[in-house]
Amino acid sequence: MKRLSNLIAATFAAVMTLPASAAELEVHEPWVVLAPPGAYATAAFMELHNAGETPVNVVEADAPGFETVELHRSFNEDGMHRMVRQDRIEVPAGESVALAPGGLHIMLIGPEQAPTEGQRIPIELRFDDGSTQTVEAVVHPRAARPAGHDHGDHHHH
Fold this sequence. Notes:
Blueprint (H helix, E strand, L loop, with lengths): L1 H15 L3 H4 L1 E9 L7 E10 L5 E7 L3 E12 L2 E6 L3 E3 L4 E4 L4 E8 L8 E8 L4 E9 L17
Parallel strand pairs: 1-10
Antiparallel strand pairs: 1-2, 2-7, 2-8, 3-6, 3-9, 4-5, 4-8, 9-10
């Protein structure tokens, strides 16, 4: 019985000492662009809100059914559309960061099968503290992207 009590206490202590940063991240309205037939890549967008007191850094992402998943930022420079891979996406304490068309986003590259409208794609976000959070992003045509703050799709892990 003492061994069980120690195990429970150790487990509780381990859970209580997990870095709070990633646990404080709220993900709102995750969605993926419905790509045209034959497209080699598409993008995932969402709003990240850090309800905690320390910055949260997303350092990687992964999604089943895609060869590669990368963090990216799009921007216009000298009239040219450019996209640059990012080492991390920082969400400052108490603030929100939008992953949106024309800015930060998650590239989903090399799909095994083309995503279909309404499909839910699990995307695992990985943080610099070693923790992860999985969200389900719904595939929508770009013109029908989610609007408002429907919190039904956000997950806390």
